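cron nightly-structures :: item 1 of 1
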Amino acid sequence: MGRERLYLYDTTLRDGQQTAGVQFAVSEKIAIARALDAIGIDYIEGGWPGANPTDSEFFAERPETRATFTAFGMTKRSGRSAANDEVLAAVMNAATPAVCLVGKTHDYHVTTALGLALDENISNIRASVEHMVASGREALFDAEHFFDGYKANPAYALECLRAALEAGARWIVLCDTNGGTLPQEIGVIVTAVIAAGIPGDRLGIHCHDDTGQAVAGSLAAVLAGVRQVQGTLNGLGERCGNANLTSLIPTLLLKEPFRSQLETGITDAALAGLTKLSRKLDDILNRVPLRSAPYVGASAFTHKAGLHASAILKDPTTYEHVDPALVGNARLIPMSNQAGQSNLRARLASMGIEVDPKDARLGAILDEIKEREDRGYAYDGAQASFELLARRELGLLPEFFSVERYRVTVERRRDARGRMGHLSEAVVVVNIGGERRLSVSEGIVADGSDGGPVNALSKALAKDLGPYQCHIEDMKLVDFKVRITHGGTEAVTRVIIDSEDSKGLRWSTVGVSPNIVDASFEALLDAITWKLARDGAQPA
C-alpha cells in the first residue's frame, strides 16, 4: 500500500508575525515566501488582507508560487450577508487560490466574546464557507479554540465542523488556540472527531506552544489521522509560539512511523536546506539563532564530553539520532579544558588534518588550550579560533598579514541640531608582504547612527586587505557576546564574535583582554584569518 499524502501549511507570514518584536517588511515577506516555496511547503499563508497596510501591499505584490497561496480572515459578521461583508470582501479581493477563515467553535466564546446565539454562529460559518466555494476558492475553516470547545461541549464543537464541511470546506483545521491541550488529549479528541464522521484527510492541526508541546501535539494529531499540519519556521508565533516546522519537517521525513507511512512535498535535497532556511529567517529578523534548536541548532550535533567524542569517532550513531547532513547541519567536536585526545583528533579530522596519535604536538595543543582557558578563553563556543590555534601549533597556518598598530577614538559631541551623540573612528595599519596599508573608518551604520568602536574597527580592518579583499568582502558580523571573567582586580573581558558569509557559512572566534576593544579586535583578526585559511588564500 502506498504512503498517504500529508500536507504542510506554513503560517510564518501571518501567525509568526504576531510574535512580540516581529514586524516583516513587504520585501522580507516576499523573500520568506520564495524560500518556503523552494523547500516544498504545500500552503503559504501570507497574512490578513485589509488588516494592515503591509499585508495588503504584500498580497498585491506576492510572488508566484508552486505552493497554494492562502489569505486569512474571519467568517462573516452577523446582520449582513457574506457577499456584503466588507471585512470578508477584503480577504476575497486578495485573489488567492485558497482562503482560510477563522470561526468560533467553543460555545463560551460564541456567547461571551461574540455575544451570539449558538445557532447564529453556525449559520455564519456555513454561509461564509459557501461564499468562498461559490467564488472558486479552496476553503479552509480554522476552528478556533476547538479543543477547549470540544472538552466543554463536544456536540456543539462538532456541529460547527460539520457546518463547514457540508458547505464545501476542503480543510477543517483543529486549533489548540490557547496551547494548553496535551498531546495525549489531542490524539484522543482527533480520533473522536474522525469517528464522528469528519474524515481525517479533510482535517488539519494547528498547535500553539504554551506548554512546550506544540510539536508533540501536532505529531499526536497526525498519528490519529489528520493530514494537514500547520506551523511556523523557528516556532514563531504569539505568546510562546506555534508548532515549529523546523522540528516537525525532519521528524516527519526521517522518523518512523511517519517516514514509511506518509509522503510530503519536501524532497531529501530540500530537507538538506533546512538549516540554511532557519538561519535565513533569523538573519531577516536580526536575531541570534538558538544554538540548542533541534536538528538545525549549532549545538544540535555538538559532542563535548571526551567519552562521547571517542564513541563518535567509532560510529556517529552512538550519540546522533540522525546524520546532521540530512538537514544541512554539521557535527562539531568542541575543544575545552575538559578535552582529551579523542576530542582533539576528531576535531582535527573534521578540519581535514590527520595526525599520528603518538604525535607529541597533540599534547602541546591540549596544554595550550587548557592554559589559555585558565586565562579566560573559551574554545567550545569558538571553534574557528581553536582551528587557528591548532594549525599554528602544527605549522599549517601561513601568515597572511600582520597588524602593526591600531587606534580607536570615541568622540562625544553635539550635532547640527544641538543633540548630544557620539562618533567612533578607527585607524588600522597592516603589513601585507612587506607593504604597509593604513585604513580609517567611522562606526556609522545603515541608519546613520554610530555603531560603536568595535564596528569602526571591523570596518577599518576589512577595508583594504589588498590581495585578500575578494575573500572577505562578503563577510559580516552577526553576533557579538561579551563576558567578564575572573572578577575583581584581575577581571578580563572575553568577546565571542559570530561571522557569516554570503553562502550562509557561520563561524565563531574569541578574544580575551582586560580591554574590551582589544579583546574584540583579537576576535575580529581570528575571524578574517580563519576565512582566508578556509578559502585557501595564498600568502602575499
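cron nightly-structures :: done
Residues 299 and 416 are 48 Å apart (CA to CA).
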